[in-house]
Design goal:
2 copies of one chain form a homodimer. Chain A has 228 residues and is mainly alpha-helical. The first copy, chain A, has helices at 15-28, 40-47, 51-64, 82-105, 108-128, 131-148, 152-169, 179-194, 198-222; strands at 37-38, 67-70, 74-77. Chain A folds into 2 domains: 15-77, Orthogonal Bundle (Arc Repressor Mutant, subunit A), CATH 1.10.10.10; 82-227, GntR ligand-binding domain-like (Four Helix Bundle (Hemerythrin (Met), subunit A)). The A-B interface holds A 14, 55-56, 59-60, 63, 65, 71, 87-88, 90-91, 93-95, 97-98, 102, 151-154, 156-157, 161 and B 12, 14, 55-56, 59-60, 63, 65, 71, 87-88, 90-91, 93-95, 97-98, 102, 151-154, 156-157, 161. The structure holds a DNA duplex (30 and 30 nucleotides).
DNA sequence: TTCCGTATGATTGTTGACAGCGCGTTGGCA
DNA sequence: TGCCAACGCGCTGTCAACAATCATACGGAA
Protein backbone atom coordinates (compact mmCIF):
# COMPACT_ATOMS: atom_id res chain seq x y z
CA UNK A 1 0.00 0.00 0.00
CA UNK A 2 1.79 3.01 -1.34
CA UNK A 3 0.62 6.54 -0.67
CA UNK A 4 2.22 9.06 -2.92
CA UNK A 5 0.85 11.88 -0.77
CA UNK A 6 0.74 11.90 2.97
CA UNK A 7 -2.91 11.24 3.70
CA UNK A 8 -2.89 13.44 6.79
CA UNK A 9 -1.83 11.67 9.96
CA UNK A 10 -5.53 11.96 10.86
CA UNK A 11 -4.74 11.86 14.53
CA UNK A 12 -7.75 13.18 16.36
CA UNK A 13 -6.71 14.90 19.54
CA UNK A 14 -8.33 13.53 22.63
CA UNK A 15 -10.98 15.64 24.29
CA UNK A 16 -8.96 16.33 27.44
CA UNK A 17 -6.05 17.49 25.30
CA UNK A 18 -8.25 19.96 23.47
CA UNK A 19 -9.67 21.30 26.70
CA UNK A 20 -6.22 21.53 28.25
CA UNK A 21 -4.88 23.39 25.24
CA UNK A 22 -7.72 25.87 25.35
CA UNK A 23 -7.32 26.49 29.07
CA UNK A 24 -3.56 26.75 28.70
CA UNK A 25 -3.91 29.39 26.05
CA UNK A 26 -6.34 31.36 28.14
CA UNK A 27 -4.04 31.21 31.12
CA UNK A 28 -0.96 32.08 29.10
CA UNK A 29 -2.45 35.17 27.51
CA UNK A 30 -4.00 36.37 30.71
CA UNK A 31 -7.65 35.82 29.87
CA UNK A 32 -7.73 33.79 33.06
CA UNK A 33 -6.00 35.97 35.60
CA UNK A 34 -3.88 34.49 38.38
CA UNK A 35 -6.04 33.67 41.38
CA UNK A 36 -9.12 32.93 39.33
CA UNK A 37 -11.01 29.88 40.45
CA UNK A 38 -11.86 27.26 37.87
CA UNK A 39 -14.99 25.28 38.52
CA UNK A 40 -15.14 21.91 36.81
CA UNK A 41 -18.87 21.90 36.38
CA UNK A 42 -18.95 25.40 34.91
CA UNK A 43 -16.27 24.63 32.35
CA UNK A 44 -17.96 21.36 31.51
CA UNK A 45 -21.24 23.10 30.91
CA UNK A 46 -19.59 25.79 28.87
CA UNK A 47 -17.88 23.27 26.62
CA UNK A 48 -20.80 20.91 26.41
CA UNK A 49 -18.98 17.92 27.84
CA UNK A 50 -19.05 16.05 31.11
CA UNK A 51 -16.89 16.75 34.12
CA UNK A 52 -14.63 13.80 33.44
CA UNK A 53 -12.60 15.16 30.55
CA UNK A 54 -12.53 18.61 32.13
CA UNK A 55 -11.20 17.13 35.31
CA UNK A 56 -8.49 15.37 33.36
CA UNK A 57 -7.48 18.55 31.58
CA UNK A 58 -7.34 20.46 34.83
CA UNK A 59 -5.28 17.73 36.39
CA UNK A 60 -2.83 18.03 33.53
CA UNK A 61 -2.42 21.77 33.93
CA UNK A 62 -2.05 21.31 37.66
CA UNK A 63 0.88 19.03 37.08
CA UNK A 64 2.37 21.59 34.74
CA UNK A 65 2.19 24.07 37.56
CA UNK A 66 -0.24 26.43 35.89
CA UNK A 67 -2.99 25.61 38.36
CA UNK A 68 -2.96 24.83 42.03
CA UNK A 69 -5.50 22.45 43.43
CA UNK A 70 -6.76 22.55 46.99
CA UNK A 71 -8.61 19.45 48.06
CA UNK A 72 -12.35 19.82 48.36
CA UNK A 73 -12.02 23.50 47.68
CA UNK A 74 -11.19 24.10 44.07
CA UNK A 75 -8.49 24.79 41.56
CA UNK A 76 -7.06 28.25 40.98
CA UNK A 77 -4.78 29.83 38.42
CA UNK A 78 -1.33 29.99 39.95
CA UNK A 79 -0.16 33.27 41.35
CA UNK A 80 3.31 34.19 40.25
CA UNK A 81 5.51 36.05 42.67
CA UNK A 82 9.02 37.36 42.37
CA UNK A 83 10.71 34.12 43.37
CA UNK A 84 8.64 32.26 40.80
CA UNK A 85 9.82 34.57 38.07
CA UNK A 86 13.41 33.93 39.08
CA UNK A 87 12.78 30.22 39.25
CA UNK A 88 11.13 30.05 35.86
CA UNK A 89 13.96 31.85 34.16
CA UNK A 90 16.57 29.85 36.01
CA UNK A 91 15.02 26.59 34.89
CA UNK A 92 14.37 27.77 31.38
CA UNK A 93 17.92 28.94 30.95
CA UNK A 94 19.17 25.60 32.24
CA UNK A 95 17.21 23.82 29.54
CA UNK A 96 18.28 26.21 26.83
CA UNK A 97 21.92 25.96 27.82
CA UNK A 98 21.70 22.19 27.55
CA UNK A 99 20.03 22.46 24.16
CA UNK A 100 22.54 25.05 23.04
CA UNK A 101 25.37 22.82 24.16
CA UNK A 102 24.06 20.02 22.01
CA UNK A 103 23.65 22.31 19.05
CA UNK A 104 27.09 23.85 19.43
CA UNK A 105 28.82 20.56 18.98
CA UNK A 106 26.79 19.34 16.02
CA UNK A 107 24.87 21.26 13.41
CA UNK A 108 26.21 24.68 14.42
CA UNK A 109 25.84 26.17 11.03
CA UNK A 110 22.40 24.93 10.09
CA UNK A 111 20.90 25.58 13.52
CA UNK A 112 22.43 29.05 13.67
CA UNK A 113 21.09 29.94 10.26
CA UNK A 114 17.65 28.71 11.18
CA UNK A 115 17.61 30.72 14.38
CA UNK A 116 18.78 33.83 12.63
CA UNK A 117 15.65 33.70 10.54
CA UNK A 118 13.64 34.11 13.73
CA UNK A 119 15.85 37.02 14.71
CA UNK A 120 14.92 38.60 11.39
CA UNK A 121 11.26 38.21 12.26
CA UNK A 122 11.90 39.89 15.57
CA UNK A 123 13.76 42.67 13.83
CA UNK A 124 10.88 43.29 11.44
CA UNK A 125 8.38 43.31 14.26
CA UNK A 126 10.58 45.68 16.19
CA UNK A 127 10.82 48.04 13.23
CA UNK A 128 7.04 47.96 12.91
CA UNK A 129 6.69 48.66 16.59
CA UNK A 130 4.45 45.66 17.03
CA UNK A 131 5.07 44.66 20.62
CA UNK A 132 3.08 41.47 20.69
CA UNK A 133 4.66 40.31 17.45
CA UNK A 134 8.08 40.78 19.01
CA UNK A 135 7.12 38.66 21.98
CA UNK A 136 5.66 36.08 19.67
CA UNK A 137 8.88 35.85 17.69
CA UNK A 138 10.84 35.85 20.92
CA UNK A 139 8.97 32.80 22.16
CA UNK A 140 9.27 31.12 18.78
CA UNK A 141 13.02 31.69 18.82
CA UNK A 142 13.47 29.99 22.15
CA UNK A 143 11.15 27.17 21.27
CA UNK A 144 13.01 26.54 18.04
CA UNK A 145 16.31 26.61 19.85
CA UNK A 146 15.31 23.72 22.06
CA UNK A 147 13.47 21.92 19.31
CA UNK A 148 16.60 21.86 17.18
CA UNK A 149 18.40 19.90 19.88
CA UNK A 150 16.01 17.01 19.15
CA UNK A 151 15.65 16.06 22.79
CA UNK A 152 12.12 14.97 23.65
CA UNK A 153 12.55 15.57 27.35
CA UNK A 154 14.16 18.96 27.05
CA UNK A 155 11.44 19.98 24.62
CA UNK A 156 8.64 18.89 26.87
CA UNK A 157 10.09 20.58 29.92
CA UNK A 158 10.74 23.71 27.94
CA UNK A 159 7.23 23.90 26.58
CA UNK A 160 5.87 24.05 30.10
CA UNK A 161 8.34 26.70 31.15
CA UNK A 162 7.53 28.73 28.09
CA UNK A 163 3.85 29.03 28.92
CA UNK A 164 4.83 30.15 32.39
CA UNK A 165 7.09 32.71 30.79
CA UNK A 166 4.11 33.97 28.84
CA UNK A 167 2.29 34.48 32.11
CA UNK A 168 5.20 36.55 33.35
CA UNK A 169 5.27 38.67 30.24
CA UNK A 170 1.62 39.59 30.62
CA UNK A 171 2.64 41.87 33.43
CA UNK A 172 4.74 44.00 31.14
CA UNK A 173 2.03 44.55 28.55
CA UNK A 174 4.12 46.24 25.92
CA UNK A 175 6.06 48.64 28.05
CA UNK A 176 9.44 47.70 26.71
CA UNK A 177 11.96 50.43 26.43
CA UNK A 178 14.92 48.77 24.80
CA UNK A 179 13.55 46.48 22.16
CA UNK A 180 16.54 46.86 19.91
CA UNK A 181 18.75 45.51 22.68
CA UNK A 182 16.38 42.60 23.05
CA UNK A 183 16.74 41.75 19.38
CA UNK A 184 20.49 42.13 19.57
CA UNK A 185 20.69 39.64 22.42
CA UNK A 186 18.92 37.01 20.39
CA UNK A 187 21.14 37.66 17.41
CA UNK A 188 24.16 37.20 19.61
CA UNK A 189 22.87 33.87 20.83
CA UNK A 190 22.11 32.65 17.33
CA UNK A 191 25.54 33.71 16.11
CA UNK A 192 27.30 31.98 18.95
CA UNK A 193 25.50 28.78 18.01
CA UNK A 194 26.24 29.22 14.35
CA UNK A 195 29.94 29.59 15.10
CA UNK A 196 29.99 26.73 17.57
CA UNK A 197 31.28 29.06 20.27
CA UNK A 198 30.15 27.05 23.21
CA UNK A 199 31.49 29.13 26.07
CA UNK A 200 30.39 32.38 24.51
CA UNK A 201 26.93 30.91 24.03
CA UNK A 202 26.65 29.94 27.67
CA UNK A 203 27.64 33.42 28.76
CA UNK A 204 25.14 35.01 26.43
CA UNK A 205 22.31 32.77 27.57
CA UNK A 206 23.10 33.65 31.17
CA UNK A 207 23.23 37.32 30.30
CA UNK A 208 19.93 37.01 28.46
CA UNK A 209 18.40 35.54 31.59
CA UNK A 210 19.82 38.27 33.82
CA UNK A 211 18.59 41.02 31.54
CA UNK A 212 15.14 39.54 31.36
CA UNK A 213 15.02 39.28 35.14
CA UNK A 214 16.01 42.88 35.59
CA UNK A 215 13.29 43.98 33.19
CA UNK A 216 10.64 41.76 34.71
CA UNK A 217 11.43 42.38 38.34
CA UNK A 218 11.52 46.13 38.03
CA UNK A 219 8.21 45.98 36.23
CA UNK A 220 6.89 43.66 38.87
CA UNK A 221 7.85 46.16 41.49
CA UNK A 222 5.81 48.78 39.67
CA UNK A 223 2.75 46.56 39.41
CA UNK A 224 2.77 45.61 43.01
CA UNK A 225 -0.24 47.71 43.91
CA UNK A 226 -2.41 46.04 41.28
CA UNK A 227 -1.43 42.59 42.38
CA UNK A 228 -3.72 42.34 45.34
CA UNK B 1 -14.86 3.12 49.68
CA UNK B 2 -14.64 3.75 53.38
CA UNK B 3 -11.29 4.19 55.00
CA UNK B 4 -11.27 2.39 58.30
CA UNK B 5 -7.78 3.44 59.26
CA UNK B 6 -7.91 4.97 62.70
CA UNK B 7 -5.68 7.75 63.89
CA UNK B 8 -3.26 7.68 60.99
CA UNK B 9 -1.20 10.83 60.52
CA UNK B 10 -4.20 12.12 58.56
CA UNK B 11 -4.85 10.90 55.12
CA UNK B 12 -4.23 14.18 53.47
CA UNK B 13 -2.62 12.64 50.42
CA UNK B 14 -5.20 12.24 47.71
CA UNK B 15 -6.07 8.77 46.52
CA UNK B 16 -4.72 9.30 43.01
CA UNK B 17 -1.42 10.45 44.49
CA UNK B 18 -1.12 7.31 46.53
CA UNK B 19 -1.91 5.13 43.54
CA UNK B 20 0.51 7.05 41.36
CA UNK B 21 3.26 6.71 43.95
CA UNK B 22 2.71 3.01 44.19
CA UNK B 23 2.74 2.52 40.44
CA UNK B 24 5.75 4.76 40.08
CA UNK B 25 7.70 2.72 42.57
CA UNK B 26 6.78 -0.50 40.83
CA UNK B 27 7.86 0.90 37.50
CA UNK B 28 11.07 2.35 38.87
CA UNK B 29 12.25 -0.85 40.48
CA UNK B 30 11.30 -2.98 37.55
CA UNK B 31 8.38 -4.86 39.08
CA UNK B 32 6.43 -3.57 36.10
CA UNK B 33 8.67 -4.28 33.16
CA UNK B 34 8.76 -1.97 30.13
CA UNK B 35 6.11 -2.96 27.65
CA UNK B 36 3.71 -4.25 30.27
CA UNK B 37 0.13 -3.23 29.72
CA UNK B 38 -1.74 -1.63 32.58
CA UNK B 39 -5.48 -2.14 32.62
CA UNK B 40 -7.45 0.43 34.55
CA UNK B 41 -10.15 -1.95 35.67
CA UNK B 42 -7.68 -4.54 36.90
CA UNK B 43 -5.72 -2.06 38.97
CA UNK B 44 -8.93 -0.60 40.31
CA UNK B 45 -10.14 -4.00 41.39
CA UNK B 46 -6.81 -4.84 42.92
CA UNK B 47 -6.77 -1.68 44.97
CA UNK B 48 -10.42 -1.74 45.88
CA UNK B 49 -11.22 1.62 44.33
CA UNK B 50 -13.08 2.81 41.29
CA UNK B 51 -11.56 3.43 37.88
CA UNK B 52 -11.67 7.19 38.35
CA UNK B 53 -8.74 7.65 40.72
CA UNK B 54 -6.76 4.96 38.92
CA UNK B 55 -7.33 6.73 35.66
CA UNK B 56 -6.09 9.95 37.18
CA UNK B 57 -2.96 8.29 38.53
CA UNK B 58 -2.22 6.71 35.18
CA UNK B 59 -2.74 10.00 33.46
CA UNK B 60 -0.21 11.55 35.79
CA UNK B 61 2.44 8.95 35.08
CA UNK B 62 1.73 9.28 31.40
CA UNK B 63 2.55 12.94 31.57
CA UNK B 64 5.73 12.12 33.41
CA UNK B 65 6.68 9.92 30.51
CA UNK B 66 6.70 6.66 32.45
CA UNK B 67 3.68 5.35 30.60
CA UNK B 68 2.52 5.69 27.04
CA UNK B 69 -1.17 5.77 26.32
CA UNK B 70 -2.68 4.65 23.06
CA UNK B 71 -6.25 5.72 22.54
CA UNK B 72 -8.83 3.00 22.97
CA UNK B 73 -6.07 0.47 23.27
CA UNK B 74 -4.41 0.74 26.61
CA UNK B 75 -1.49 2.17 28.52
CA UNK B 76 1.91 0.53 28.58
CA UNK B 77 5.09 0.97 30.57
CA UNK B 78 7.46 3.00 28.42
CA UNK B 79 10.19 1.15 26.61
CA UNK B 80 13.56 2.77 26.96
CA UNK B 81 15.96 2.60 24.09
CA UNK B 82 19.46 3.88 23.67
CA UNK B 83 18.47 7.35 22.60
CA UNK B 84 16.19 7.62 25.63
CA UNK B 85 19.04 6.79 27.96
CA UNK B 86 21.12 9.53 26.35
CA UNK B 87 18.22 11.94 26.55
CA UNK B 88 17.50 11.22 30.18
CA UNK B 89 21.07 11.78 31.24
CA UNK B 90 21.42 14.84 29.08
CA UNK B 91 18.35 16.42 30.66
CA UNK B 92 19.23 15.35 34.16
CA UNK B 93 22.71 16.76 33.87
CA UNK B 94 21.27 20.01 32.60
CA UNK B 95 19.13 20.30 35.72
CA UNK B 96 21.94 19.36 38.04
CA UNK B 97 24.32 21.81 36.43
CA UNK B 98 21.80 24.55 36.98
CA UNK B 99 21.30 23.52 40.58
CA UNK B 100 25.04 23.22 41.07
CA UNK B 101 25.54 26.66 39.62
CA UNK B 102 23.12 28.11 42.13
CA UNK B 103 24.82 26.28 44.99
CA UNK B 104 28.30 27.29 43.90
CA UNK B 105 27.53 30.94 44.23
CA UNK B 106 25.76 30.76 47.58
CA UNK B 107 26.03 28.23 50.34
CA UNK B 108 29.07 26.41 48.90
CA UNK B 109 30.32 25.24 52.21
CA UNK B 110 27.14 24.06 53.81
CA UNK B 111 25.84 22.37 50.69
CA UNK B 112 29.17 20.70 50.04
CA UNK B 113 29.34 19.37 53.57
CA UNK B 114 25.83 18.05 53.36
CA UNK B 115 26.52 16.27 50.10
CA UNK B 116 29.72 14.77 51.41
CA UNK B 117 27.64 12.99 54.01
CA UNK B 118 25.86 11.18 51.21
CA UNK B 119 29.21 10.31 49.68
CA UNK B 120 30.11 8.71 52.98
CA UNK B 121 26.99 6.64 52.79
CA UNK B 122 27.94 5.51 49.33
CA UNK B 123 31.41 4.69 50.54
CA UNK B 124 30.10 2.55 53.37
CA UNK B 125 27.74 0.73 51.03
CA UNK B 126 30.56 0.20 48.60
CA UNK B 127 32.77 -1.25 51.31
CA UNK B 128 29.96 -3.56 52.29
CA UNK B 129 29.52 -4.59 48.70
CA UNK B 130 25.82 -3.75 48.84
CA UNK B 131 25.05 -2.84 45.26
CA UNK B 132 21.48 -1.68 45.73
CA UNK B 133 22.48 0.43 48.72
CA UNK B 134 25.06 2.17 46.57
CA UNK B 135 22.47 2.97 43.95
CA UNK B 136 20.11 4.16 46.65
CA UNK B 137 22.72 6.52 48.06
CA UNK B 138 23.63 7.58 44.54
CA UNK B 139 20.05 8.63 43.84
CA UNK B 140 19.80 10.33 47.20
CA UNK B 141 22.95 12.31 46.48
CA UNK B 142 21.61 13.66 43.23
CA UNK B 143 18.22 14.39 44.69
CA UNK B 144 19.77 16.28 47.57
CA UNK B 145 21.97 18.23 45.21
CA UNK B 146 18.98 19.64 43.40
CA UNK B 147 16.93 20.02 46.54
CA UNK B 148 19.60 22.22 48.07
CA UNK B 149 19.20 24.69 45.25
CA UNK B 150 15.70 25.41 46.56
CA UNK B 151 14.17 25.68 43.13
CA UNK B 152 10.69 24.17 42.98
CA UNK B 153 10.74 23.74 39.23
CA UNK B 154 14.17 22.22 39.01
CA UNK B 155 13.24 19.84 41.81
CA UNK B 156 10.06 18.72 40.16
CA UNK B 157 11.69 18.17 36.81
CA UNK B 158 14.55 16.34 38.44
CA UNK B 159 12.29 14.01 40.39
CA UNK B 160 10.75 12.80 37.16
CA UNK B 161 14.10 12.29 35.52
CA UNK B 162 15.35 10.43 38.55
CA UNK B 163 12.66 7.77 38.35
CA UNK B 164 13.49 7.33 34.70
CA UNK B 165 17.11 6.94 35.71
CA UNK B 166 16.07 4.20 38.07
CA UNK B 167 14.44 2.40 35.15
CA UNK B 168 17.71 2.63 33.27
CA UNK B 169 19.69 1.26 36.18
CA UNK B 170 17.50 -1.83 36.38
CA UNK B 171 19.23 -3.09 33.29
CA UNK B 172 22.56 -3.20 35.06
CA UNK B 173 21.36 -5.18 38.03
CA UNK B 174 24.44 -5.01 40.13
CA UNK B 175 27.06 -5.70 37.55
CA UNK B 176 29.19 -2.71 38.30
CA UNK B 177 32.87 -3.16 37.96
CA UNK B 178 34.29 0.10 39.16
CA UNK B 179 32.26 1.12 42.16
CA UNK B 180 35.13 2.92 43.81
CA UNK B 181 35.42 5.16 40.78
CA UNK B 182 31.71 5.84 41.03
CA UNK B 183 32.08 6.98 44.61
CA UNK B 184 35.10 9.07 43.76
CA UNK B 185 33.14 10.91 41.08
CA UNK B 186 30.49 11.93 43.54
CA UNK B 187 33.08 13.04 46.04
CA UNK B 188 34.66 15.17 43.38
CA UNK B 189 31.33 16.83 42.62
CA UNK B 190 30.60 17.49 46.28
CA UNK B 191 34.04 18.97 46.82
CA UNK B 192 33.76 21.23 43.81
CA UNK B 193 30.53 22.57 45.25
CA UNK B 194 31.99 22.95 48.72
CA UNK B 195 34.86 25.00 47.30
CA UNK B 196 32.63 27.06 45.03
CA UNK B 197 34.62 25.93 42.01
CA UNK B 198 31.97 26.56 39.44
CA UNK B 199 33.80 25.65 36.26
CA UNK B 200 35.34 22.57 37.78
CA UNK B 201 31.91 21.49 38.97
CA UNK B 202 30.43 21.80 35.50
CA UNK B 203 33.22 19.72 34.02
CA UNK B 204 32.80 17.07 36.64
CA UNK B 205 29.05 16.88 36.18
CA UNK B 206 29.56 16.46 32.44
CA UNK B 207 32.17 13.82 33.04
CA UNK B 208 29.83 12.06 35.43
CA UNK B 209 27.21 11.97 32.73
CA UNK B 210 29.63 10.66 30.11
CA UNK B 211 30.88 7.92 32.39
CA UNK B 212 27.37 6.84 33.27
CA UNK B 213 26.45 6.73 29.60
CA UNK B 214 29.43 4.58 28.76
CA UNK B 215 28.52 2.16 31.51
CA UNK B 216 24.85 2.05 30.62
CA UNK B 217 25.20 1.84 26.87
CA UNK B 218 27.70 -0.95 26.90
CA UNK B 219 25.43 -2.84 29.27
CA UNK B 220 22.49 -2.06 27.05
CA UNK B 221 24.34 -3.55 24.13
CA UNK B 222 24.74 -6.73 26.10
CA UNK B 223 21.07 -6.92 27.00
CA UNK B 224 19.87 -6.37 23.49
CA UNK B 225 18.67 -9.91 22.99
CA UNK B 226 16.34 -9.73 25.95
CA UNK B 227 14.80 -6.51 24.73
CA UNK B 228 12.38 -8.03 22.24
C1' DT C 1 -4.19 -20.29 -0.85
C1' DT C 2 -4.98 -15.68 -0.13
C1' DC C 3 -7.62 -11.86 0.75
C1' DC C 4 -11.49 -9.34 2.40
C1' DG C 5 -15.52 -8.61 5.32
C1' DT C 6 -17.72 -9.59 9.58
C1' DA C 7 -18.36 -10.79 14.35
C1' DT C 8 -16.70 -10.75 18.87
C1' DG C 9 -14.17 -9.53 22.89
C1' DA C 10 -11.56 -6.36 25.51
C1' DT C 11 -10.34 -1.76 26.94
C1' DT C 12 -10.64 2.97 27.07
C1' DG C 13 -13.69 7.34 26.76
C1' DT C 14 -17.61 9.60 28.68
C1' DT C 15 -21.55 10.38 31.38
C1' DG C 16 -24.69 11.43 35.31
C1' DA C 17 -25.39 10.77 40.12
C1' DC C 18 -24.11 10.53 44.89
C1' DA C 19 -21.15 11.37 49.00
C1' DG C 20 -17.92 14.11 51.72
C1' DC C 21 -15.41 18.11 52.99
C1' DG C 22 -14.71 23.01 54.05
C1' DC C 23 -16.23 27.64 54.03
C1' DG C 24 -19.50 31.32 54.82
C1' DT C 25 -23.62 32.59 57.05
C1' DT C 26 -27.07 32.79 60.14
C1' DG C 27 -29.12 32.42 64.47
C1' DG C 28 -28.88 32.13 69.36
C1' DC C 29 -26.74 33.31 73.66
C1' DA C 30 -23.98 35.73 77.10
C1' DT D 1 -22.28 44.08 70.92
C1' DG D 2 -19.33 40.14 70.53
C1' DC D 3 -18.73 35.22 70.31
C1' DC D 4 -19.81 30.45 69.44
C1' DA D 5 -22.34 26.67 67.31
C1' DA D 6 -25.20 24.71 63.95
C1' DC D 7 -26.70 24.87 59.33
C1' DG D 8 -26.64 25.22 54.40
C1' DC D 9 -24.23 25.73 50.08
C1' DG D 10 -20.77 24.99 46.67
C1' DC D 11 -17.38 22.37 45.17
C1' DT D 12 -14.49 18.41 44.55
C1' DG D 13 -13.86 13.20 45.22
C1' DT D 14 -15.65 8.89 43.98
C1' DC D 15 -18.47 5.62 41.88
C1' DA D 16 -21.00 2.45 38.59
C1' DA D 17 -22.97 2.19 34.10
C1' DC D 18 -23.03 3.16 29.21
C1' DA D 19 -20.95 4.27 24.59
C1' DA D 20 -17.27 4.22 21.32
C1' DT D 21 -13.30 2.19 19.38
C1' DC D 22 -9.81 -0.95 18.20
C1' DA D 23 -7.57 -5.71 17.79
C1' DT D 24 -8.24 -10.31 16.86
C1' DA D 25 -10.24 -14.43 15.05
C1' DC D 26 -13.11 -16.57 11.99
C1' DG D 27 -15.48 -17.69 7.72
C1' DG D 28 -16.39 -17.25 2.93
C1' DA D 29 -15.27 -16.04 -1.83
C1' DA D 30 -12.07 -15.40 -5.71
Amino acid sequence: MKNRRVLEPIMQESTPSLIAAQLRRNIADGALAPGTQLVEADIAGELGVSRGPVREAIQRLTQEGLLVSIRNRGVFVSEIDESDIRDIYEARTAVEKAAGGILAQRDHARAGAELLRFVERMDKASAAGDGSAISEADMAFHQKLVELAASPRLSRIHATLLTETRMCLNRLQGRFEDESARVAEHRGIAEAIRDGERDLLMDRLDAHKDDALVRLLSAHEGNKTTAS
